[in-house]
Amino acid sequence: VTEKNQSHSPGVTPYLEGVTVLDFTQYLAGPSCTRLLVEMGADVIKVEYPPYGDPVRPSPPRRNGRSAYHVQQNRGKRSLSVDLTRPEGIALIEDLVPHVDIVVENYSPGVMERRGLGYSRLRELNPQVIMASISGFGQTGPLSEKTAFDFIAQAYSGLMHMTGEPDGPPMLIGAGIADTSTGVHAFAALGYALYRRDRTGEGSHLDIGMVDVMYHMQETAVSGPSLSQGEVVGMRTGRHYAPASPAGIFKGPEGWIVVFALENQIANLWAALEMPELAEDPRFTNNRTRLEHRDALTKIIEDWMAAFDKDQDVVSTLERHRVPCGPVVEPVKLAETHPHFLERGTVREVADPLAGSMLIPGFPLRFSDAPDLPDLVAAEVGEHNETVLADLLGLDSESVAALEEEGILYRRPPRE
Fold first, then answer.
1. Rg of the chain over CA atoms, in angstroms?
2. Would you say 164 and 238 are in contact if contact means Cβ atoms under 8 Å apart?
3. Category of 358 on φ-ψ map: left (φ > 0), alpha (ψ -120 to 50) or beta
4. Which three-class secondary structure state does DSSP give residue 262?
5. Which residues contact 196 (CB under 8 A, 6 or more apart)?
6. Cα(405)–Cα(410) distance, rounded to whole angstroms?
7. CATH number of 3-217+348-410
8. What is the pTM (predicted TM-score) of this model?
9. Where in the sequence numbering do the catalytic residues fall?
10. pLDDT reported for residue 414
11. Domain ranges (residues) in the chain
């Protein structure tokens, strides 16, 4: 399981080579965006507060002081640690802005403006700069100043209301879907902003809110009640899909199995069950009647599954009859052994100089002529102070050392 498992072409120029990014992000939503920019070849400069940097750096689990969470989200980013509470620190950022293409931040709305680094100021310094502001509720509106984390966005967007058992409380989605999806949306928007800038020469300010992104995921819970004038109500449906049956999660001999048999697959399901008589059963003749008798059909399917020894035998039987299905698996167990995941590079092994080797999700985008993925390492706080300021501003080592001595820059470990 290595980073070379994905299909890439050696010698091909990375898609974002030559794009420089000032990254004022922390936690997950912003770093999810800039992580993708790095892997596409951008030079991402992560601006971190001294002395601790991104608050996720100590997040467990850790090995040799290195957090798996931090390593996964921040590999390949250069770290510049600047004291932004001091005018000299702000001035240093202002000096850098004319030399970058993109600025990404996920502070609460107004923080960058209070530092004198809002979009209007950045545009004065660099008319072509593209700024992406990622926040919980967006930059405008009555809730814009409200603090938001992933679960709060799940709640306000209604997705939490739609998750869980019908007679139980709302449930959390089992991953940071609001953070990561918002990061991906920001990444996509930046691509279009770069494309527009290439055509017009103009920069832009992107306002990406987590709640907006999550609400956009509601495929029927908004339009359905609206169109039906309230006859259809969005509500939790537990382990079954509300509009169709059989469609949901079923108890297998070992674990859980998803079966999703729509009208054009239902005959295949009866064949897989070896119960052709179900086709004539008035309880199951169409989707409406199957929904009315969902519990009875669920029992039939789960009783059939219980006769097998292994979940994979159930899945194989259903697949032979072209019934859409799949096992519910732990994120690592199948991915690190299944040939599909290995061939696609869906999971990959990366090396960290302190933490050693670990598995992380693979890069999710595939291109016909993508370059080999680079070997990326998560930086220590302020590790690249000298190289960043030399590359972008032409400062020499002595000048950078003086800024560190004055406390405008921070570096861990400090210079000897």
1. 26
2. yes
3. beta
4. coil
5. 202, 204
6. 8
7. 3.40.50.10540
8. 0.92
9. 179
10. 61
11. 3-217+348-410, 256-327
Write the CA distances from 273 to 74, 305, 315, integer angstroms.
Answer: 48, 9, 12
Structure tokens at 331: 């994120």
| C-alpha count within 13 angstroms, C-beta hemisphere, residue 29 | 28
Closest CA to 129 of 77, 206, 186: 206
* Residues 6 or more apart whose Cβ sits within 8 Å of residue 112: 24, 105, 118, 119, 133
What secondary structure letter does DSSP report for 252? -
Closest to 320 in 3D by CA, of 271, 276, 263: 271
Q: What is the CATH number of domain 256-327?
A: 3.30.1540.10
The whole-number pLDDT of residue 315 equals: 98
Alpha helices, DSSP H, located in 257-293: 266-273, 287-292
pLDDT at 415: 56
Name the nearest CA neighbour of 289 among 301, 300, 280, 299. Answer: 280
Q: Which of 345, 317, 344, 341 is nearest to 329 (CA)?
A: 341
Which positions of the chain have pLDDT values less than 70?
1-10, 414-416
Is the Cβ–Cβ distance between 184 and 110 less than 8 Å?
Answer: no
CA 198 to chain centroid, in Å, comes to 27
Main-chain phi, psi angles of 9, to 5 degrees: -115, 120
CA 165 to chain centre: 26
Asked if 245 and 265 touch (Cβ cutoff 8 Å), the reply is: no
**Rounded to 5°, angle at Cα 39 from 29 and 31:** 15
Angle at the Cα of 54 (from 102 to 373), degrees rounded to 5? 60
- What is the pLDDT at residue 86? 97
